[in-house]
Specification:
Length: 517
């Protein structure tokens, strides 16, 4: 077996794993989800999901990854196959490969907007667009949806190309010289930028005490942190909270496992996994929660902030934030920090999304690192065209729904059943605690074995009853978008079939070789 790459240092590994988890989800998706789901009402199911789904799955995925790595596998098909010798297991693993790949395609495009907008901040390009309509129109003309400030999609296309190039350049340099190096630079910078922004936000007070004395940062914090028990009966909030935990921790997509596969057999995973989850949560609920919502509450009031969040996933980050920057002294500088922070958060996650596929091509097909990276870079470049040009018709939303929301839960369900019930919880527990630098509380043995799978099952059943049919039939989707949404499904199906076929070919080849021996 060829010698596998390794992480250079422990701190590098933790930063890379934290970089994998900390992403656009922490700063853009979290505030929107919290605001849409009633702030303080959201946080209770959120923490429940963190302890019953997020942290247990974090440990499981590190264990699955390190175990698979022992057999030379950096992607889920091989990992599942190592844990469960049944023909189907590698195909269930293929689902993980599929999810990370699809997410990479649309995620890098959003990531590229942040790079663009950091440039537009420092050059004050959007200064003058001071109303919601004007700023939304700026964003939409950048995205090629309408013609206004930008007359063509070229600037967006340019930043997309730069972003893809940077991603694949880093991936080309490999685990320790590429991904680890990036994390060592990007993560501390991200912390610094976020802290500067939080300080700026908390010192804002009440910007307009005469006309709006109750519009202030405190009201933003109160909105998130005053627990609201009245809405706990609403299943939607529980599902949204679980969805956010999945998205933000990057569980259920194969990227944490891929990173963990570069560990040595006796390297700790208990403490490292917990550190990754804690870092992510610190960034999300301390830093992420202290920027977009409180600042919007101070300038627009809580009601409007909730309206903004309901208006779409990017309204808070790309529309309301730029309006606020224009009201602040040195706003161009804070805008630059905000969007560059998002870019760093994004790129340390997106490189992780390509890693399973790169490992797969190298390990299961014997393709060289350079060629595998180039091949995937090229394929992502082709697929992203659809996202860029059909953005207006919900292409991105469709992919985000199936891969970034539904897919994560489905894959995690298969994974935990294989890990806790087929591989077996006793062996699984031994894996999690092997080489551990902390004592993992025994209660997690039972949580992983019973509660997490049941929780996931419950989410899936709930989905089947409530959402499956209307979502599948695209109820509520604008009629003119339906063909494009089907197009997105077609593209995903194509990617899925391609991955399944590759898994089949690789295993057929391997079985033949084994028989020949
Ligand atoms: N965890 C990263 C983020 O929060 C990547 C998520 S992809 C489902 O953005």
């Amino acid at each position: 077996m060829a010698k596998r790459e390794r992480w250079g240092t422990r701190i590098g590994l933790i930063l890379a794993m934290a970089g994998n988890a900390v992403g656009l989800g922490n700063f853009l998706r979290f505030p929107v989800q919290a605001a849409q789901n009633g702030g303080g009402a959201f946080m209770i199911p959120y923490f429940a999901a963190l302890f019953l789904l997020g942290i247990p799955l974090m440990w499981v995925e590190w264990a699955v990854g390190r175990y698979g790595g022992k057999f030379g596998h950096g992607s889920a098909p091989g990992m599942f196959d190592a844990m469960w010798k049944a023909p189907i297991s590698k195909y269930l693993g293929a689902l993980g490969l599929f999810i990370s790949t699809v997410i990479m395609v649309y995620y890098t495009y959003i990531e590229s907007w942040t790079l663009g907008f950091s440039f537009f901040s420092i050059t004050k390009a959007y200064f003058g667009e001071t109303t919601f309509d004007a700023m939304r129109s700026f964003l939409q003309s950048y995205q090629g949806i309408e013609k206004n400030y930008f007359q063509s999609i070229l600037p967006a296309y340019f930043f997309m190309c730069v972003t893809l190039f940077l991603n694949f350049f880093i991936l080309y340099r490999g685990i320790s010289r590429g991904i680890e190096m990036l994390a060592k630079i990007a993560m501390p910078t991200l912390f610094l930028f976020a802290i500067i922004l939080v300080i700026r936000v908390v010192t804002l007070g009440t910007p307009d005490p005469v006309n709006h004395p109750d519009w202030n940062v405190e009201s933003g914090f109160a909105f998130i942190w005053n627990p609201d028990f009245s809405k706990l009966g609403d299943a939607k909030i529980w599902l949204a909270a679980a969805g956010q935990i999945f998205f933000t921790l990057s569980v259920g997509m194969g990227t944490l496992q891929a990173y963990a596969s570069y560990l040595r057999e006796n390297d700790d995973i208990a403490l490292s996994g917990l550190s990754t989850a804690s870092t992510n949560e610190f960034v999300e609920v301390i830093l992420g929660a202290s920027i977009a919502i409180p600042v919007a509450a101070a300038f627009f009031g809580i009601e409007t902030t909730q309206e903004i969040a309901k208006g779409g996933a990017f309204n808070l980050g790309f529309v309301s934030m730029p309006i606020i920057f224009q009201k602040l002294p040195f706003g161009e500088f804070f805008g630059f920090l905000w969007f560059l922070l998002l870019f760093f958060a994004g790129i340390t996650s997106s490189v992780a999304m390509a890693q399973p596929l790169i490992a797969f091509l190298k390990e299961e097909f014997g393709i060289s690192h350079g060629r595998a990276t180039a091949l995937i870079g090229f394929s992502v470049f082709i697929a992203i065209q659809f996202v860029v040009f059909f953005l207006k018709h919900g292409f991105l939303d469709e992919m985000d729904y199936w891969a970034g929301t539904f897919g994560l839960v489905l894959f995690a369900l298969f994974e935990i059943i294989i890990f806790a019930w087929i591989f077996g919880m006793d062996k699984g527990w031994a894996e999690i605690t092997k080489g551990a630098d902390i004592k993992v509380p025994k209660i997690f043995y039972y949580i992983i074995k019973y509660i997490t799978p049941l929780y996931l099952l419950f989410i899936m059943v709930n989905w089947l009853i409530q959402d499956a049919v209307p979502t599948f039939l695209m109820q509520g989707v604008k009629p003119e978008d339906i063909p494009y949404r089907w197009g997105a499904r077609g593209l995903m199906l194509l990617i899925f079939i391609a991955i399944i076929l590759m898994v089949k070919v690789a295993w057929d080849k391997r079985n033949k070789q084994n028989r020949g021996k």
